[in-house]
């Protein structure tokens, strides 16, 4: 295509065009998904116990992701000497958002589950943009007819509450609900720290389910290689990333910030290690609440991390033709 004399086509700067994730193609028909990775928005935040606003997370992450879409030859990393997300090896689509029914958690979660199941039926890896952490519950439910996996959580909070005043599907419950599923083979919870929303009994319950719980300080003391050695080899991993796992100095735009969190490269190295250690079955990134961060840094962090994670996933475990 030629436009305004540019023989190579449009310049397509980040602020131009339709704002899909990474400016990848949009596929609104969930029965026609043809990709290796599919992005689904889950703009639901009725499960939060403190500050709302994560319903605006998917839009903010998509907007921030356009910053990294400028350059069609992929993303060359000189430290790894690898070009990630090369156009000829990357098939990513954005399938839009699950429909959210205000005040109706059950139906909203069901709609999210439907979207994830559609992605899985197409043979693609789901990448879900939250929303509060309760959206992980329908994501995990959607894998009921898939091969089992090990769940890796990056978070400040354990999220292992069984029930609180009748609530079993809020953003404090997802890891408990996941641990109950027969297709979740194990659970690693990284970054858990400080004053927590889960009582001592919750930690005891999590360990009773076989969970490996590590704080940020413990991971720094061990080192990423030693943390990787605690995970099973040649495993399928589902990764759930709560943005409050990061320190609020770089990610203030979240409902429940907790100081003492991870920095960017610590998590990138952990995710890179997961991609080398096994296959990624699915990803969700939750709790980005952009209105609490006027700089946009939190949304940028989320988009940058996801694009780097997806790039490494596709490079180290290329899809089967």
**Weakly predicted, low-confidence segments:** 1-6
Integer tally of domains: 1
End-to-end separation? 29 Å
Largest sheet: 8 strands, parallel
CATH class: Alpha Beta
From the 3D coordinates, which CATH architecture would you assign? Answer: 3-Layer(aba) Sandwich
Major sheet: order of its strands?
4-1-5-10-9-6-7-8
Order of helices and strands: EHEEEHEHEHEHEHHEHEH
Class inferred from helices and paired strands:
alpha/beta
CATH topology heading: Arginase, Chain A
Write down the Rg.
19 Å
Percent of residues in beta strands?
A: 15-25%
Anisotropy-based shape: globular
How many separate helices? 9
Mean pLDDT: 94
List strands and helices in order, with pairings.
Elements: E1 37-42, H1 57-65, E2 75-77, E3 82-84, E4 92-97, H2 105-121, E5 125-130, H3 136-141, E6 149-154, H4 174-179, E7 184-190, H5 200-208, E8 212-214, H6 216-222, H7 224-229, E9 235-242, H8 264-277, E10 278-286, H9 297-316
Parallel strand pairs: 1-4, 1-5, 5-10, 6-7, 6-9, 7-8, 9-10
Antiparallel strand pairs: 2-3
Helix pairs in contact: 1-9, 8-9
How would you sum up this structure, described in words?
With 321 residues, the chain is an alpha/beta fold. The protein has one domain: 3-Layer(aba) Sandwich (Arginase, Chain A). It is 29% helix and 18% strand. The chain is built from nine helices and ten strands. It has helices spanning 57-65, 105-121, 136-141, 174-179, 200-208, 216-222, 224-229, 264-277, 297-316; strands spanning 37-42, 75-77, 82-84, 92-97, 125-130, 149-154, 184-190, 212-214, 235-242, 278-286. The strands form two sheets. An eight-stranded parallel β-sheet has the order 4-1-5-10-9-6-7-8, sandwiched between helices. Helix 4 links the parallel strand 6 and strand 7 (184-190). Helix 1 crosses helix 9 (297-316) and helix 8 runs parallel beside helix 9 (297-316). The chain is globular, with a radius of gyration of 19 Å. The two termini are 29 Å apart.
């Amino acid at each position: 295509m030629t436009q305004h004399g540019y023989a190579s086509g449009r310049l397509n700067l980040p602020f131009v065009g339709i704002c899909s994730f990474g400016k990848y193609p949009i596929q609104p028909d969930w029965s026609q998904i043809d990709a290796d990775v599919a992005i689904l928005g889950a703009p639901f935040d009725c499960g939060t116990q403190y500050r709302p606003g994560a319903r605006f997370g998917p839009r903010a992450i998509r907007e921030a992701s356009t910053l990294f879409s400028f350059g069609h030859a992929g993303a060359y990393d000189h430290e790894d000497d690898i070009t990630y997300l090369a156009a000829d090896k990357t098939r990513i689509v954005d399938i839009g958002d699950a429909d959210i029914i205000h005040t109706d958690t059950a139906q909203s979660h069901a709609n999210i589950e439907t979207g994830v199941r559609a992605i899985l039926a197409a043979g693609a890896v789901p990448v879900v943009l939250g929303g509060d952490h309760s959206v992980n519950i329908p994501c995990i439910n959607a894998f009921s007819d898939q091969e089992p996996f090990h769940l890796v959580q990056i978070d400040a909070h354990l999220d292992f509450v069984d029930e609180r005043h009748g609530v079993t599907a809020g953003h404090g419950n997802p890891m408990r609900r996941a641990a109950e599923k027969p297709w979740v083979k194990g659970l690693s919870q990284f970054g858990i720290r400080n004053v927590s929303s889960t009582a001592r009994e919750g930690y005891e319950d999590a360990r009773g389910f076989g969970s490996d719980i590590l704080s940020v300080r413990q991971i720094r003391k061990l080192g990423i290689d030693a943390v990787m050695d605690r995970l099973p080899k040649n495993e399928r991993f589902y990764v759930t990333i709560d943005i409050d796992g990061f320190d609020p100095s770089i990610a203030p735009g979240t409902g429940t910030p907790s100081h003492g969190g991870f920095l960017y490269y610590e998590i990138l190295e952990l995710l890179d290690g997961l991609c080398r250690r096994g296959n990624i079955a699915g990803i969700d990134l939750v709790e980005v609440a952009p209105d609490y961060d006027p700089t946009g840094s939190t949304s940028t962090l989320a988009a940058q991390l996801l694009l780097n994670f997806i790039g490494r996933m596709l490079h180290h475990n290329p899809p089967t033709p």
